[in-house]
Give the backbone structure.
Amino acid sequence: MTNTNSDNSREWAAQAYALLKKRQEEQKQELQKQEEQKQELQKQEMIDISNSENISGQSKTIAEAELGEFDDNFTWSAMVLASQGKKINQISIDEIDWLTKLRRGLEETRKGFVTELLDKLGDDPLTPESLDDLETLLIRADVGIDSTDKVISSLRKKLNEEVVGGEAGIKFLKNELKLIIDKPIKKSGTDLLVPKKGRLNVWLLVGVNGVGKTTTLGKLAYLSSRSNYKTLIAAADTFRAAAVEQLKVWGERSNVDVISNQSKNADPAAVVFDAINSAKKRNVDLLLVDTAGRLQTKNNLMDELAKIKKIIDKKVPDAIVESLLVLDASQGQNGLKQAKSFAKSADLSGAIITKLDGTSRGGVSLAVSEEVNLPIRFIGAGEGIRDLRPFNSFEFVEAMLADK
Ligand SMILES: Nc1nc2c(ncn2[C@@H]2O[C@H](COP(=O)(O)OP(=O)(O)OP(=O)(O)O)[C@@H](O)[C@H]2O)c(=O)[nH]1
Ligand SMILES: [Mg+2]
């Protein structure tokens, strides 16, 4: 991964670990001090908690990630950050925690892929036969035929020109995979999707039922309010009875209000209408819209999305609207089919891949980039509030091809 040898890496990681440990202890002490002061104030009835209305500003304290052991996972994560130019004192526990989760999450994808690949390649130079093996492994990891063809023909071309050793082969492979994922991101002109300040940003989460739209929205609300964007949620899935309650729980966790209409068969576009009014009044930066995953027919679903978009265009023509397709990685090629049919009817601007933890089909992310041509904006690897991060192709490919 880096040019430094593994001893240097461990030494660097050990220093980073010591620094983070110290920082965490200081933060704990600080939090404890604040808590004691707060309790003291409450005792004196100097603050009235019921009056502390707050839709986004400061979130409730949600426990930070705990620093784990100093182990292989830590060292690997620290090295991935170092390779991206991070200095020791710029590393955060959240980043380490996420990379560890991502690497663990992609373990199943890796098992049927890299481990076998490394066994087959060993330290020997690549041969046409090893390319055939690689082709099978890529297809098996759900990378998709088009992306696989692209990678294999680049490698074949390289092999015709020079001798390629095992390690160099893996490096070349990583780079080819990254190029495929980065293409739609580059084309979009935006590397990292964040709300633009001073404008209303509306992010619609769309996708078929059960892929993780509501959970992802909850995690996004947390990320957004933690990053000090004024955030609001619109509960526009009025089809599933429990959807509003599920959203309210997420809203509470991140201290973000939820606009909903509890009446049966409420019109989703009407909920969005109300939410936009609220958002304007409160000067909201980001309005997150949860949508239904299942209606009586598929056409209904598309019609409903079109209606929601029309309302937004009419009421806030200068809003920045993102339609983000949520895809469950564990559905592999099936998910890809859904993505293609959604992309045809709904005007999508990006994808969010969920459930990357524990699936052997993480490679489907490449197929989404190559075959549906959508920039991947976030990825989810777990059910917890912190288990979603902005997508980073370097980290993704490193985690997918991590060698141990
Ligand atoms: N392991 C894992 N589970 C996830 C992830 N994201 C969501 N889930 C789970 O997937 C299930 C469905 O999630 P929802 O968020 O309700 O999915 P949805 O798309 O809103 O579903 P509908 O509203 O019915 O269309 C829940 O049990 C979530 O906890 C993830 O990244 N990893
Ligand atoms: Mg839902």
